[in-house]
Amino acid sequence: YQRRVRGAFIAMLLDLSTTNLLLVIVVAACAVPAIFCFKLASRMARTRRSILELRDQPIAQSCQPHWLFGHMLDVFVEHRHDRYEYLEKAMSSQKGSKSLLVEHLVLDRSPAEVIVTDPSSVKHILKDNFDNYIKHHTDHSELLYNFSQFLGEGIFATSHGPHAEDKGKRWYTQRKLTSQMFTASEFKNFIFDTFATTSDTLVSQLESKLQSGKTVDLQSYFFKYTMDSFGLIAFNAEFRTLEGETAEYGEAFDAAHESVATFFRKFALMGTLLEVFDEKSWLRRAIEAVVHPLIPEIQKLKRVRRTMRDYTAKVIADRKSCSNEEKLASKDILGMFIKAAEEEHMAQSDEYLTDIVLNLIIAGRDTTACLLSWTFYELARNPDVLRTLREHLKGLDVDDFNSVKHQPYLTALLYEVARLWPPVPMDSSIAAEDDELPDGTKVKAKCWVSYSPYIQGRDPELWPEPHQCRPERFLEHGKFVAPSYYDYPVFQAGPRICLGMNFAIMEASIATAKLLNHFDFELTSEGPLQPDTDKFTMSIRGGLNVRLKRRQAV
After folding, report:
1. Maximum separation of any 2 CA atoms in the chain, in Å
2. What is the DSSP letter of 164?
3. Which of 102, 299, 453, 470 is buried deepest, with most CB atoms within 10 A?
4. 524 in the Ramachandran plot: left (φ > 0), alpha (ψ -120 to 50) or beta?
5. pLDDT (tens digit per residue) in 163-180
6. How far apart are CA 496 and CA 491, in angstroms?
């Protein structure tokens, strides 16, 4: 029907005289701004009504909101570099309130963000009313403008439940296959051997820096360590970035993360305005066709996504040319997904497999590198914790899986560091329908609802002396005791709980133990280090500069 209407419209244009055709063009030129203004005014009115309802309840706010920009200038411009600390102070200053209202632009399709820190509210959004909190709007448009260019259809950007476009089938399938992969004993052994081998390379590369006596940015080495590890785990490919080689996929991955973060910081308003039009409308596509080539970040993101897709496609082609015996012997993520897809008779495009691998690398590479960086920062600031850890590591066989797995103090330390400096400081979803949280906070449909491991980890009601690094919080009678994941949502909780959290702890444990066996270190920077809040994961702004010394045998 639509094709017939378009055909009739084109035929009508062809029959028009030059004068009438110009008249049609003038009317269209006037109609487009009129339609835009009407849609914008309608959205502003809806947003205003929702915001007034959200304000009309006992909920904390960081400051008096601007009539147009809400809290956006306050949170993302004035406090760009200390955003999470600022939000934590705003929350703690409102005694008794466990929810914080952050109002968006009045033009935004999502009127506001409700940040929750009460464990019962976290449980509500992550488990009890799980299907209401999704990763897309109910019209299936993106959580953030252009976000799918980064994560595609991977597990973190895919919605679950009845409100999803495919009723959550894509998310469920990825979740199921990933769960099966992570519980396979051969995959566990493959991952451990990979971490052990790559951490040896990390030690040897740092050994080569001892002669110069120069400072070393440990954080950059941790990112190389986790990238080399995941090159093997994802593709069975040796990137060798620790050894100074350039990895095409690794560089493209880092560039994609940087460009998408820069785009959101610089062009959020443009995205908000374009979202006035439906994601699939011809008018929005026409505007994007004109605007996108003028934005370097979008062009860079498309270019590096193409590089990652081409790399993955080449590996896939190589795998498909392998014999059945070689396919069955494959232990890396890509190989296991291809094998599982064939067993389930599922058609998976190269683009889809690229998205799957990219999401898993984000989950395992950046987060563990951040955790390691903050761990060595806290060890440098807390010599008593370092002494205790070294006592517990005496006699440890770092190359034995069970020996590393059963290190309660080391595990407790990593959990404590992740409480203080969670690799993902905030996670957001969209409310599909109006809801009321267990603490009485009302949530409007289309609102963002977020939980913040960073803010929650500094709540003195949950964690006495929250700013102190005390691994003993997670120990009872010398044994590690995992916290409630609703008190401690560092690894999420409920149906979306992180499937790879034990592997992340294992990767960080191996590297920590081996480095402490070989080196003493001291910070060279003065004053406390600050988190980098410009990306989705929380690394150390400016890196972790230390001076290394070879550790004397004890």
Report:
1. 94
2. S
3. 453
4. alpha
5. 888 888 888 888 888 887
6. 9
